[in-house]
Design goal:
9 strands; alpha+beta; 316 residues; two-stranded antiparallel sheet; globular; 13 helices
């Protein structure tokens, strides 16, 4: 999981500790976590030597090391996410923060594969192209820049919703707001979030970010223009703001996952949805083929826009 998903995770948690809270492998004591509990590692998903029918996916924590928490992933401008992702896929987790900060170079095997073979890692703390090891405290930013957030979120948000974050596609971005203007974090790194149909992670944080009404109606942001509707404000209790104010998206998003052939085939919105909301067989040329209109449904007492995701799977 660290190999394939660790690129968008700062480390720690499942990248460092097993399900009983022990380090997968302790570099000082040279012991695996299962040795502390006396469990059999062969059938343990954290330590198995044969995973998913692929012996190359052996959980060799003594070779890879653990993936420790890396603060610089968010708090250093110019962080090398791609290089760190390559390292993780190659199965050398312990060098992740070093590579990300630009203090290490990788020597890869010429054989190309999804999980590259790393022949050598050269660490040089005198390198200053990204992070200056001696003056790092002067380079760490308290407010993570948007590009640090979007290196991970651009992919997931684009696939799920077709959402974009640029001055051309979002009025908030064009007015100088950034990601943490609406999604600030607390001292425990809990990031403020809203409450949508598709997000079920950390529901305890629902409604902690400023809503449209907070800034444009209740005056939370003094610079935000106040809404002026020619009808009763009671409609706001029943209709979410984005239902009318974000009527369509201009970037295609995933609509169908077809796993019935044994491999995953993805069909996006441009395959089935028209950019003309009144005629599903016609496209509006000015918007382009990637534009699509959401469906409308009720969610927790309010009318909201939504996009279905259809998954086709046949299992034996």
């Amino acid at each position: 999981m660290v190999r394939n998903c660790g690129g968008c995770h700062p480390g720690g948690g499942f990248g460092e500790y097993d399900r009983k809270g022990n380090l997968y492998y302790n570099e000082e004591t040279k012991k695996f976590g299962y040795e502390l509990t006396g469990d059999d590692p062969e059938l343990d998903g954290d330590y198995t030597s044969f995973s998913m029918g692929n012996p190359d996916y052996v959980a060799s924590w003594d070779r890879s090391g653990v993936s420790e928490a890396d603060c610089l992933l968010c708090h250093l401008k110019g962080y090398q996410w791609k290089e760190r992702g390559t390292l993780l896929r190659g199965g050398l987790f312990k060098y992740g923060p070093t590579v990300g900060a630009g203090w290490a170079t990788l020597k890869l095997s010429p054989e190309g594969s999804e999980n590259p073979k790393i022949e050598e890692v050269n660490v040089d703390y005198s390198k200053k192209e990204v992070g200056d090891f001696e003056n790092l405290h002067l380079q760490i930013v308290r407010r993570p820049p948007d590009e640090n957030c979007w290196f991970c979120h651009a992919v997931s948000d684009g696939k799920k919703r077709g959402r974009q974050w640029s001055p051309e596609t979002d009025i908030h971005k064009s007015k100088g707001l950034n990601c943490i203007s609406c999604h600030p974090g607390d001292k425990d790194h809990n990031f403020a979030k809203g409450n949508t149909i598709q997000e079920t992670v950390r529901d305890d944080l629902d409604h902690t970010m400023p809503s449209c009404e907070d800034c444009h109606y209740k005056g939370k942001d003094k610079k935000a223009p106040k809404y002026k509707h020619p009808f009763s404000p009671r409609h706001m209790k029943r209709i979410a703001c984005q239902t009318c104010h974000i009527p369509y998206q201009t970037t295609s998003a995933d609509l169908v996952y077809d796993l019935s052939t044994g491999s995953t085939t993805v069909y996006d919105t441009s395959k089935f949805l028209s950019s003309d909301p009144m005629d599903p067989k016609k496209s509006i040329t000015e918007l382009g083929p990637n534009a699509w209109y959401p469906t409308i449904r009720e969610f927790k007492g309010r009318i909201v826009p939504a996009k279905s995701l259809i998954t086709i799977y046949w299992g034996d």
